Amino acid sequence: MHPRPSPIAAALYTLRDLEVDVIIMHGPAGCCFRTGRLLEDEGIRVITTAMNENDFIFGAGEKLVETIREVEETFHPETIGIVGTCASMIIGENMKNNAQEAGINANIIIVETHGGYEAGDNTAGAIQALKAANTAGIISQEEVDRQSEMLQKATELEKTRGMAKGTYIQPDYGDNKVTIAKKVINTIKEGKKVAIVLNAKKETSYLFADIMTINWTKHSPENQPIIIANTDENIGLPYIKHHAQTVNNTIYKKPDHITGGLDEYPVTGIKAEEILNNIKPDLTIILGVPHAVEVTNVPGETIAVTDGPRLVEPLRQMGFDNVVTELDAHSKTLGAKSIVESEFAQTIRGLLE
Length: 353
Hints:
By secondary structure, the chain is α/β, with parallel strands linked by helices.
């Protein structure tokens, strides 16, 4: 029932991860406007064929050919991504033929997707982009299979535990950050065992990992939080590996445990559960995608830190004792190359001063 990112937006973000130089959206100028503008902050040129009502009837293949050639002349890209939209895909535009007709030298990834593709699951657009990248010779079939499995599990996670469960969920902005921050500080200073679990999605890790940059050696020399993170630097596309490296090099100490890669967040929660059961913390903070962790399997008190007001109630229903929200994590981290300030971490810092 809730508005969700569309397959088109997911395809755009996946092309970003594949580090294309230019993306051409074959559709109206306003389609996925916000996503396109945000991707400009990543250094990617986002262009549209600006289809209009006349094109919806008679087609816009020539417009796409002209746009491809103009992109070649203006930007001289090595790789171009072409993404379908509802308008172009419903009328059956043949983007592959148009790309061949354009006759340029750049490598072109053609993603045939639209807003209602495969029931509108956003991950379907990402999978289409991965398959198209494989066809273009950019990534291996093995990587397509691995990422496709993760994306399918992500969809399952949202439909069973997240805000895509089907019923209407009232937005909720979670518990008071000062109250929860005091709880974290007091628990650590009392000498109790605290675990901080990063289970974040790709670049959002830059915001959720901010709490892990707090240097607890100055505030509680005898008792340090245990750091668990899905920041394996050897998993994923180079773009994603770089995020993991940056997080690992910025937090106040190296993670005590690594659960997997930043694109494996749907399943790394399972590994985190195993680790938490072995170390048995008194308090656990789970950041990013906390609903990927079955909280009933986690000992001690728990705090979920999420970016979704509509995830607060599902997280409470799962059994989390406390829920904190970090608003606009995606928009704050798009284009980021280093740690981004989080409200929760800043609240803790303010109380520590």
